[in-house]
Amino acid sequence: MPSFLPFALPDIGEEEIDEVVHTLRSGWITTGPKTKQFEDDFARYLGEGVHAVAVNSATAGLHLALEAIGLKNGDEVVTTTHTFTASAEIVRYFEADPVFVDINPDSYCIDAGAIEDAITSKTRAIIPVHYGGLACDMSRILNIAKRHNLAVVEDAAHAFPTQHCGKTVGTLDSDCTVFSFYATKTIATGEGGMLVTRDSKIAARARVMRLHGIDRDAFDRYTSDRPAWYYQVVAPGFKYNMTDLAAALGIQQLRKAPRFRLRRAEIATRYNRELGALPLRLPPDGARSDEHAWHLYVVQVAQNARVNRDELIRKLFELGIGCSVHYIPLHQQPYWRERYRLTPEQFPNSQQLYERCVSLPIYTKMSDADQTRVIEALHSILGK
Fold first, then answer.
1. Which tens digits make up the pLDDT trace of 179-229?
2. d(C-alpha 322, C-alpha 41), whole Å
3. What is the mean predicted confidence (pLDDT) over 349-360?
4. I need a labelling partner for 209 at 20 to 30 A (CA). Which of 276, 335, 369, 376 fits?
5. Catalytic annotation on 167?
């Protein structure tokens, strides 16, 4: 029996190991010079004058973004049901309410047309969620936001490096963009995220609020002219800072990001070529002016297939192949379903995707032989 092929693995090389060892030997393992370097490198990578604020998770970054735009009790935020719960739970931190809309069946991202229908006098912001590495229709969403005077906070946990209309996600005209560096993401720091914004006031507020509302980071306190022991608490903040150990990984992962994206695209291209004859709907690829990050490769099992989605997953696992489902939508989750009286009928596109989708292995450490295993397994299960 061949070894188990995981759904995802981080691609950690000697460069990352050396960077972490250097950090350990430096004696500075919490937020310090490596975190500052990672922020600077990330902002430089995106370009266009953005500010980058490193945090310990994308969830933290989304929370800080909503705090910085002034979300408050009773406000509403429009987002999609087809996402991880973090995209919505951060709205509830403010005693505000997420308003859920369906996805576009052609992109699996939030339906821009449905956003406008969901806007009320209480709406304060939109959280578009880029899905699988493909960008939402941000041109249309930003136009809607401008007409209704709404903030836009992009959940870009899947979208590094992704482009929309020739521009990199993170440099669009939204108020904030938040990336994830979780272990399965396109670059990984184990846990971690980055809030990106062009607004210097939002960046400054996020820096203060990520560390207990203190007016300067610990590293600044030990490298400035003011006494190291002196600090001021200017707001009731949070504990959301990234450590230098995580940032050390990020510094080296970021340097590999272009190569990582190309390898993921190669894997996706081969899947497209060799799975096309099977009873599967292959994932959307976006417009020519867009660039897919291929964080996920999501197929839908056709109704006329020999097995349904759940049976396919079971058979793949029996063959030693890991896979996943992205996502169990929020209208199916007890808290959201019961609090907002959500039903599958309200979200037919998300419901169909949920019932039929399987995320296949796609990661840079995956060899051609590994991918051959997946392709042959799918043909053996679904082929004629």
1. 999 999 999 999 999 999 999 999 999 999 999 999 876 666 566 666 777
2. 34
3. 98
4. 335
5. no
Q: What order do you get walking across the sheet with 151-156 strand by strand?
A: 51-55, 193-197, 176-180, 151-156, 123-127, 76-80, 97-101
Instruction: Decide: helix, strand or coil at residue 370.
Output: helix
Q: What is the pTM of this model?
A: 0.96
- For residue range 7-63, list pLDDT tens digits in order: 999 999 999 999 999 999 999 999 999 999 999 999 999 999 999 999 999 999 999
Q: 327 phi and psi, to 5 degrees?
A: -135, 170
Token representation of residue 36: 């500052």
In this predicted structure, the answer to whether residue 170 has a pLDDT above a threshold of 80 is: yes
- Residue 226 to residue 327: CA distance in whole angstroms: 49
The helix/strand/coil state of 27 is coil
Instruction: Find the radius of gyration of the CA atoms of the chain.
Output: 21
What's the token pair of residue 378? 């799918």
- Return d(Cα 115, Cα 123) in angstroms, integer: 11
Nearest CA among 204, 197, 206, 133 for reference residue 164: 133
Exposure string of 357-376, with b = 16+ CB inside 10 Å and e = fewer, is bbbbbbbbebeeebbebbbe
Contact between residue 360 and residue 323 where contact means Cβ atoms under 8 Å apart = yes
